[in-house]
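Ticket #4471: structure output looks truncated?

Reporter: J.K.
Steps to reproduce: submitted the chain below (252 residues) through the standard prediction queue, then opened the result file.
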Amino acid sequence: MRVGEINNALNALGWWQLAGVDTLVEEAPCDWLAPAADAATPASKAFPASPAPAPQPASLPATLDAMRALLADDPTFGPAPRDGGAPRLLPEGSPTSGLMLLTGMPEADDAAAGTLFAGRIGLLFDRMLAAIGRDRASIYLSAISPARPAGGRIAPETADACARIALHHVALARPRVLLLMGKEASCAILGADIPETRGRLHRLDQGPDQGEAGVTAVATFHPRLLLQRPSLKAAAWSDLRLALGAMGEVDR
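Returned output as attached by the reporter:
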C-alpha cells in the first residue's frame, strides 16, 4: 500500500473515532436497536450490601428481675460491658411506686456517676421530683437504652427493638402513670416527638392483664433541654401537674 493510501486510511479512521464509532461491524447482521440482554452482575457490585438485621431478644422476659437481666446483657443495646461495651445503667427506684419515668438513654456523664440524670441535669431533675412531692426512691426510673450509644443516638436499625422492649418493660412494671422524659422516650412509646405529644394524656393498652385502665402516659421535655431553654420550664411544670392529676395527686 502506498504512503498516500495509508495516510488516507488513517485520516478516515480518525474521523470515525471523532464521530463516536467504537465498535467494528461484523459480517453477521446485528439488530442494534434490540434491548440489551441482562448481564449477570454480582449482587455485591450491583447494589450496596444490606445492613445486618438488628439483634432481637429471643423472648421477652416475664418478670421485672428477668427484664433487669435482659437490660444488663442483651445485644440489642450493643456489646455487654464484659465484652468491652459501654456501661449500662439499670432501672432505679421502686417499681411499686405507681409512677414510672422513662428517658431515652444515659447522658454523657451518667455512667461515671453510676446513675441516670447526674450532674447539673440531675440537680434539676431532683428539683422537678421534689416539686411533685417525690424523690428518686419513690419513682421507678429507667431508660429505653441502658447504654449510651456512640454519638448519643439510638441507631435506626435497633430503634424498633428498643421500643418493643421498653413497652414490655412498662407492661411488667404496671405504673399508674408513665412520664416520658424527652424526644427519644416519646418517639419510642408514642411514635411522635414532644411537640406533638405533650400537653395531653395518652392511654397505653397493655393487654387484658392490665385491666380496662391500662397505663396513662404523659410526655414532657428532657431536663437537659430545660437547662438549655429555661423558658420551657413553665410548660414542663404544666406537664408534671397533668401527671399528678392522672394519679389523683394534683393538690400536692
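Triage note (M.O.): checked the attachment and the full C-alpha cell line is present. The first strand starts at residue 92 and ends at 93.
Status: closed, working as intended.
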